[in-house]
Amino acid sequence: xxxxxxxxxxxxxxxxxxxxxxxxxxxxxxxxxxxxxxxxxxxxxxxxxxxxxxxxxxxxxxxxxxxxxxxxxxxxxxxxxxxxxxxxxxxxxxxxxxxxxxxxxxxxxxxxxxxxxxxxxxxxxxxxxxxxxxxxxxxxxxxxxxxxxxxxxxxxxxxxxxxxxxxxxxxxxxxxxxxxxxxxxxxxxxxxxxxxxxxxxxxxxxxxxxxxxxxxxxxxxxxxxxxxxxxxxx
Length: 234
Prior knowledge:
By secondary structure, the chain is mostly helical. Helices cover 78% and strands 0% of the residues.
């Protein structure tokens, strides 16, 4: 839960500063900060990817994951869910508490880094992904609050409940997962995280959400190999 608490704190701080300062933070500064976070995100993803004992498991998980993700249209469904919630708030209510709350909640809680970071925090207590996300959300909260008002601050409650629940569920699932399962799940998540880094650097618009099923496929592949008496390491 450490990463989630940190995330809540940065949303509150960023939202408070945005409400007080407005749009005074230079665009070039915001862009440079995002690029810096993108570089760090790629470094973290690479470190996670190197946890694999068999790169073929990671490759299989990523490929099967993206096939399922595109088949299930995860990217489109997430976008549609956001659009539907925005539509219910209504056009022409910019600056209201409700729109600030819903918009910020969607941005902070709907995304691959939210899922991967919360699961990793719950499984192994590593909140480095959520720390990066916290910085991103802090700057996003500043920008959002400057235009949508104090409602952005209340999205911290959504972050606490959603990410906290994912971390607790991962902690419960830990007892059923072997060290090899966690390692390959981490490595697969690392590849996905590098994709997020490329997006933050504006290098390539990758449909990262479509890769999410891969992090659940990785431990299943390890379980199947173990049941068949085949070693995970090549």
